[in-house]
Design brief:
This protein has helices spanning 25-34, 56-60, 65-80, 85-95, 99-113, 118-122, 131-143, 146-203, 209-224, 226-244, 246-258, 262-283, 288-298, 302-316, 321-325, 333-345, 348-405; strands spanning 2-9, 15-22, 38-43. By secondary structure, the chain is mainly alpha-helical. A 3-stranded antiparallel beta sheet has the order 2-1-3. A hairpin with a 5-residue loop joins β1 (2-9) and β2 (15-22). It starts with a strand and ends with a helix.
Length: 406
């Protein structure tokens, strides 16, 4: 899409000057006329040497969650200070460094200036503002509490960033150790083992099974290592293909929840995310059916999605949500009890907030436990690989020395 600059006059005679993304100038004219604006001038997008430098890969990438969180917080602060929405967006547009996000905010300002509600404007950019964000903003506009809703969104996004950071830090150590182990193993098998193999061949010594196995692996890596790369690529594409299938995704996500160590972390992070998302929607005035539907869309696990869908169906027929959650594999009895109490007392949002806070702490403990459990396992794993290679190379030497001493 190209960006057209335009000037138009509204019914009161006020001149509006802004920009609009569109395929053609005719599309801009149709849009302005539909808004009952009298067109004064439309400028075509710049081209040639006057055009802005555009790198598609960098220009099209969506902003990070952190950047959107900062935007939400700053917009809430400006609105709370009494700055009009259009002016607030104009101020933020000048502060954003991400080119693509800057253009998005620029378009938002233009649409809001032309009379479009903010919720409708941001709904046109699903890669930046997801369904949760759009519905919360709509609820804030309806209740006249847009600033407080934006503050809640920013706080929610900050907690989401913290949760992601914890999970990322928990996975970083084993991944680094695994990569390190692979590199060491490859170096030993392709550099050290061939040298020992040459020496043993000259000595014509009998070789134990472990040595023969190491020499065979070494020979394979020296001449056919590319097959491993091909195999890894095939496995990756096969995984993605299976995961795109509904049944395949259910099976894989169910396995993720049952994995030793990692499954516990996956479950607790899913509960924390559910409680925060659902609680935020309820406290912002979104009805429970729609809130469950939106929350389901933010879940990253098919089993969790299925559980939320079942809960929504139960609520639609007039029953309590907790009765459905009690039969799920994801939510433990304590969480179900707290949600049930919240439903009975009318304080569901408060109970969900407590569940979210509790499971944030549980995620912290799960990360610490996982790190403590993985460290010795990875050390033993790395030591076992190196020890096996060393033993495979030196066992024949000991055999030769024993023969010579006799």
């Amino acid at each position: 899409m190209a960006v057209f600059e335009y000037r138009a006059r509204d019914r009161s005679g006020k001149i509006l000057k802004s920009q609009m993304e569109a395929e053609t100038e005719a599309q801009v004219r149709d849009t302005l006329r539909a808004k009952n604006l009298m067109i004064v001038e439309i400028k075509a997008p710049k081209s040639g040497l006057n055009a802005d430098l555009k790198i598609p890969f960098l220009d099209d990438r969506p902003p990070s969650l952190k950047q959107v969180s900062i935007f939400s917080k700053q917009l809430a602060t400006l609105i709370n200070a009494g700055v009009p929405l259009v002016q607030s967006l104009a101020v933020l547009q000048g502060q954003i460094e991400h080119k693509g996000f800057q253009k998005t905010v620029k378009s938002l300002r233009s649409e809001v200036e032309a009379g479009t509600p903010l919720s409708e404007a941001i709904a046109k950019y699903p890669k930046v503002f997801n369904r949760l964000y759009v519905n919360l903003v709509r609820a804030g506009e309806t209740s006249g509490t847009l600033d407080s809703v934006l503050e809640r969104i920013a706080a929610f996004q900050e907690k989401e960033l913290i949760l992601r950071g914890k999970i990322k830090s928990a996975l970083t150590y084993p991944v680094v150790v695994l990569v390190f182990a692979i590199l060491i193993t490859y170096f030993l098998l392709t550099t050290i083992v061939p040298q020992f193999a040459g020496i043993l061949a000259q000595l014509n010594a009998p070789l134990p099974f472990i040595t023969k196995m190491l020499m065979a692996v070494s020979e394979f890596l020296q001449h056919s290592a590319w097959l491993l790369v091909v195999f890894a690529v095939i496995i990756t594409f096969a995984y993605r293909w299976v995961y795109k299938m509904p049944k395949g995704r259910v099976i894989i996500d169910d396995i993720k929840l049952k994995l030793p160590v990692f499954g516990n972390l996956t479950q607790k992070s899913a509960i924390a995310s559910f409680a925060r998302t659902f609680g935020l929607l309820i406290s912002s005035g979104v009805n429970i059916i729609e809130a469950l539907e939106i929350t389901k869309g933010t879940a990253d696990n098919a089993i969790v999605e299925e559980t939320i869908e079942n809960a929504k169906n139960v609520v639609m027929v007039g029953e309590q949500m907790s009765s459905s959650l009690a039969t799920s594999k994801v939510f433990p009895p304590m969480v179900v009890s707290m949600i049930s109490i919240g439903e009975e007392t009318g304080a569901l949002d408060s109970m969900l907030s407590k569940v979210g806070d509790f499971y944030d702490r549980e995620v912290d403990e799960a990360v610490e436990s996982m790190t403590a459990a993985i460290e010795p396992i990875m050390i033993v794993f790395l030591g076992g690989i190196v020890g096996t290679i060393v033993a495979g190379m030196f066992l024949p030497m000991f055999s030769i020395i024993g023969t010579l001493s006799q």
